[in-house]
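A reminder from the course coordinator: this example appears on the midterm review sheet, so study it carefully.

Given structure:
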């Protein structure tokens, strides 16, 4: 065991959290994980992760706590359940996309329990999470960064520091900006394919037309490929989660006096796709929102 070995608690083992827990364990750290549905966390035991029955059990004597849950209220609820196991001075990597209001509530909780909060959302989906190549956006005190750097290095290829104060939300604000671009591109990809189908245009002719020029974009081709090749499951990033992120982006814009029409449209498309039964598929399935519920793939 290395002198730098940490005990890390991972709360939330969905698509992202499970991959992060595996990579932290593979880096030589002791990992305890909790998930609301324990059966989804159990496969982690094959990677040496200890799965616990309660959040409080997971965080007891942890050096670092990492939360990767659905949204801010979910993260706050789980941390409240963990309260009996918390100790003052523990570093908390809060990686849930919580939004501005959600992060404010989490920061208040951190202060009340003496936790050192790092606002640390990530950019990336299933594949980079599994390979440890996420981009971490982080804000937190320099004096405590050495305590969390081994964890950040295990889950990400790079960390971009945005500030000294995790409670200020500088990393969360950057995440919302970045996600607004991701969602806009995904929605545009879906509409390009839908319009191609409606007009009887071979999508490949479109890709040939833009190839190598300023309009070409690898991410566009990636998301379009998931639809065209029927590879929407397992999801890289699910429709329901993307819809939640779109809502947080729209809310953040409103709070600061701007209207985000494209983000509003993305939220509507993703919500409609979820209602059509595509909620657990990759967010590229927003493509189906252009058609009726029974549209063939």
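Designed residues:
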């Amino acid at each position: 065991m290395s002198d730098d070995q940490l005990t890390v608690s991972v709360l939330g083992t969905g698509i992202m959290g499970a991959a992060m827990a595996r990579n932290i364990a593979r880096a030589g750290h002791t990992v305890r994980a909790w998930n609301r549905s324990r059966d989804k966390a159990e496969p982690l035991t094959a990677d040496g992760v200890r799965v616990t029955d309660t959040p409080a059990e997971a965080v007891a004597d942890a050096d670092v706590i990492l939360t990767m849950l659905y949204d801010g209220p979910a993260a706050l609820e789980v941390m409240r359940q963990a309260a009996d196991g918390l100790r003052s001075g523990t570093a908390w990597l809060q990686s849930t996309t919580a939004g501005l209001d959600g992060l404010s509530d989490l920061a208040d909780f951190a202060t009340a329990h003496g936790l050192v909060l790092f606002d640390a959302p990530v950019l990336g989906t299933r594949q980079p999470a599994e390979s440890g190549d996420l981009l971490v956006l982080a804000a937190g005190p320099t004096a405590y960064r050495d305590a969390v750097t081994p964890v950040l290095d295990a889950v990400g290829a790079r960390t971009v520091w945005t500030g000294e104060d995790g409670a200020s939300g500088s990393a969360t604000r950057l995440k919302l900006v970045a996600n607004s671009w991701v969602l806009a591109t995904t929605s545009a990809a879906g509409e390009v394919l839908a319009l191609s189908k409606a007009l009887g245009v071979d999508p490949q002719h479109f890709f040939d037309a833009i190839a190598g020029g300023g309009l070409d974009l690898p991410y566009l081709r990636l998301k379009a490929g998931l639809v065209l090749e029927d590879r929407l499951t397992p999801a890289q990033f699910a429709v329901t989660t993307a819809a939640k992120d779109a809502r947080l982006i729209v809310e953040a814009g409103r709070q600061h006096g701007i209207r985000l029409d494209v983000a509003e449209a993305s939220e509507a498309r993703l919500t409609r796709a979820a209602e059509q039964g595509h909620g657990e598929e990759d967010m590229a399935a927003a493509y189906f929102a252009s058609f009726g519920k029974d549209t063939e793939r």
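The chain is about 50% helix and 15% strand. Residues 170-199 form the longest helix (30 residues).
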